[in-house]
Amino acid sequence: MNEDIRLANLVLGGGGVRGIAYIGMYEVAEEKSLYFKNIAGVSVGALVGAFIGAGYNSVELRRILYDFDFEKIKLRDISREIPAVKKYMEYTSRNTFQRDKSFKTFLNMRWAESDNNSAKNYRFFETDEEFTGYRRDLLKNIVTYSKQGSLFDGDYLEEWVYKILRKRGIKTFADLRLGKPDWSNPNGYKVRMTAVDANRGRIVVLPDDISYYGIDPDRLEVAKAVRMSTSVPFAFKPVEVLKKDGSSIKKHYLIDGGVLDNLPIWLIQPSMSIPLIACELKGKEKLINVMTPFNILKGLISTVHDFGVPDIKHYKNSYLVRIYTGDISFLDFELSDKEKKYLIDAGRLAALYTFQRVFRPKYMQRCGLFCVLRRILGLHS
């Protein structure tokens, strides 16, 4: 490997359409001769991480994301396509004088069990003592509502990812045993991602944990894993995985990994020799004043992300690239060229700021004390 290439590990958080900002981050990484050894991601971070891990450069990544046919997932009659939106509207109209009409309260209500179409689904959920209370009820209702209807089933996304990865010779995770094995990644997969098993209320690390369902991790298709990780509740249908349980077959529902943790930096072992770079997409939090179906959908999706996991996201030799995406929503599928440029520029700006800090200690180490003093005194050219 070229001596000028710098190694780093990469974690990409979720954020829907705003993931276009990762193009800008990746451009700066290439300009800095930065090579990502191990990559982890969730939701859109899993999508982009898979493309980077497959060997696509920033120019190709830009073309790939720009060429995606968002017309295939165009928002239609939301209240009709997504029963959860319609039921929330009914819930607020019935409870005019109730003070707490939050999305969280609505999704955590047990009355969803009484629905004839959803009650039968509850037998699929396990009765783990750790999986109780708020998280249990919320995840059960997420699956129940998502099964009743969503914007799209995810077939188009999976097929699109599959075709792009195949062009680089990537089909299953066996083709991605290119990373550095360690205690957190014993099989040395270059790219890994997370989903959530809503039945068990647990994060599923892909491909490693797919063995729980009787599937060989090496044989799991990367495109299928990306679909699991990006199955945003209410937007995509949950991915059904069958597990043999004695003489019976049990259905498990896998959804977006960002539901429990939208920035899983714990997927990569901390290292003092290789810095960890974690990228987070941060938009402006706006109060929803007008309860249109689209705003309700955004509120529901925002509510079901990053809950239930303690915020212990600090590791030695780790750096956070916080990308501010402004008013652009994760559901803004019809982005203008100006908005796309804004996101890419935001990714570049955040990366330039952070990468400067990542490699400063190495410069000082090479330079020595005398050189550092010269820089402090302004004598270094």
TrEMBL record:
Q: Name one Pfam family in it.
A: Patatin
**Domain PNPLA: from-to ranges:** 10-269
Which GO terms fall under biological process for this protein? lipid catabolic process
Q: Where is this motif: DGA/G?
A: 256-258
Kindly identify the residues recorded as the active site: S43, D256
Q: Where, by residue number, is the motif GXGXXG? A: 14-19
Motif (GXSXG) spans which residues?
A: 41-45
Provide the alphabetized UniProt keywords.
Answer: Hydrolase, Lipid degradation, Lipid metabolism, Membrane, Transmembrane, Transmembrane helix
Q: Name one GO molecular function term.
A: hydrolase activity
Has UniProt tagged this entry with the keyword Protein transport?
no
Membrane-traversing stretches = 7-26, 38-56
Q: What PANTHER family does the record tag this protein with?
A: ANNEXIN, PNPLA DOMAIN-CONTAINING PROTEIN
Provide the protein name.
Answer: Lysophospholipase-like family protein
Gene source species: Acetivibrio straminisolvens JCM 21531
